[in-house]
Design goal:
13% strand; 273 residues; 4-stranded parallel beta sheet; 10 helices; 2 domains; Alpha-Beta Plaits; 3-stranded mixed beta sheet; alpha/beta; Rossmann fold
């Protein structure tokens, strides 16, 4: 079977899955995965597919606005769910299972609202590749009975991007994203002011032309990650980047020569010194 035919077959399976589900609440962050998930769900179910978007200091305002704009343009009903991470026991202390604690709290809220709305299922946008990575949040997904349609039909990240491009979705080439809490070294408390520093720092780097960026926090040090092929460009702009990040409140600024990689904060876990 050709790759195009196989991809269309998976899209067909995804549509059939939503048809069988009848009505869904889709966890929507405006990322690559959740945008395709929502678009297909709405295409199949119409008003019986509703976007649920978390409103939290852990998520940048720019992502929130993109989520709103997509729903408005696509005429999809959106429910915004306020989340205060500091009310979730243990999260602000940033333990290694922080993502699990936060995800379980958020998805539990989604489930409660979905029941009140009369929606049969809550869905989230993890894909087949996520099973190969350390994703503590998937434990919460399994425990609460949340559906993962993209994984259920076997879609990989590359296939999701390809389908998104075919469907004309604006996110087909959008860089991968994770919540701002993932920028903090495990065990270091997460403060609202530092979250804002990270958000503004990453916006600054994106305004300079870097598409995939992270500003990782280690105490008062900012560790900047850009794509490996952009490391030399970032180094050349150090006289712009360093004072700008220091102006936000960081005492030290360093450039990670290894470049951007997903979950780099996990590298310190279980490492012997």
């Amino acid at each position: 079977m050709g790759l195009v035919t196989q991809l269309q077959q998976k899209l067909g399976y995804l549509s059939e899955l939503f048809q069988d589900m009848g009505s869904v609440a889709v966890g929507f962050s405006a990322g690559v995965d959740s945008t395709l998930l929502l678009a297909v769900a709405h295409g199949v179910l119409g008003d019986s597919a509703v976007a649920f978007t978390a409103i939290s200091p852990f998520f940048p305002e720019r992502e929130r606005e993109q989520a709103r704009l997509f729903c408005q343009r696509s005429e999809i009903r959106q429910v915004e769910v306020p989340v205060d991470p500091w009310e979730i026991p243990g999260v602000s202390q940033n333990p290694p299972n922080r993502c699990y604690l936060c995800k379980r709290h958020l998805l539990s809220q989604f489930l409660n609202i979905a029941r009140r709305e009369g929606l049969a299922w809550v869905c989230e946008g993890s894909n087949l590749d996520d099973l190969e990575e350390d994703r503590p949040g998937l434990r919460a997904v399994a425990e609460l009975g949340i559906r993962s349609p993209l994984r259920e039909v076997g879609l990989t990240k590359a296939e999701i991007r390809q389908l998104s491009r075919q469907l004309g979705l604006p996110t087909w080439d959008k860089p991968s994203y994770a919540c701002l809490a993932s920028r903090f070294a495990y065990g270091e408390p997460i403060a609202k002011e530092e979250l804002s520093m990270v958000d503004r720092g990453e916006k600054l780097l994106m305004d300079l032309g870097f598409r995939q960026v992270r500003v990782r926090v280690h105490g008062r040090l900012a560790r900047v990650e850009v794509l490996p092929e952009a490391v030399e460009q970032a180094a050349a702009l150090r006289e712009t980047i360093v004072p700008a990040l220091k102006a936000l409140g960081f005492a030290y600024v360093t450039l990670d020569l290894e470049g951007f990689r997903t979950g780099s904060m996990h590298e310190t876990l279980n490492r012997r010194v």
